[in-house]
Amino acid sequence: MQAAAAKKQASTGSADVSNVAVWLTSLDPSAERAASTTAAKFVPKLVQRNKVFEPHMLVIHVGTVVQFPNKDPFFHNVFSLFDGKRFDLGLYEAGSAKSVRFDRPGVSSLFCNIHPQMSAVVVTVDTPYYGVSDAEGRISIHEVPDGRYQLQVWSERSTPDSLRLAETVITISATARDFGPIRILENPEFTLAHKNKFGQDYVLPSNPDYLPH
Known about the structure:
Layout: E1 2-3, E2 6-9, E3 21-26, H1 29-35, E4 47-49, E5 52-54, E6 57-61, E7 64-69, E8 78-80, E9 87-88, E10 97-102, E11 106-112, E12 119-125, E13 130-132, E14 139-140, E15 147-154, H2 160-166, E16 168-172, E17 182-185
Parallel strand pairs: 2-17, 6-12
Antiparallel strand pairs: 1-14, 3-13, 3-15, 4-5, 7-10, 8-9, 8-11, 11-12, 15-16
């Protein structure tokens, strides 16, 4: 199914409409049981390259294993010690990879303990019907059976109240495959600033390869 553009409204009028997660939870118990047996077709990756996570956000089904390949010529230390999945991969070198199983629903904010500018988000949902908006705000969710669904939305740049207001019940049928525009408010106080895994400010390393840029 195809969604109309997700729209973030902000006072600046220049809101970023990418990386809005939308997922559908079936309100038909029998359909939900069938959906829960759907197996992942690939292993998603959050690649570390040029001191950036690629992509910035993943939406995955509960139980999915995510790989974290290090494509930079130096060490990284990926961690998530907040809501969602808590883990610390420790230092690992260029060319190596580690993996994490996300075993319960929630939003996991990920960072690198060496490079403070690195951040990513993993949204884990208990449904196979989900999508992420592109740069133009468009969202596609594939192979959604007909039925009634709870629609939920998440964006790291929005407010909890706005996300709750965006929740709604929709009906998917042969004549209704588009759930229309989604409007959420952008949080004017949003920031990616954070502490390291020890709850302290980052200390710039002496090796220039590790420095933010």
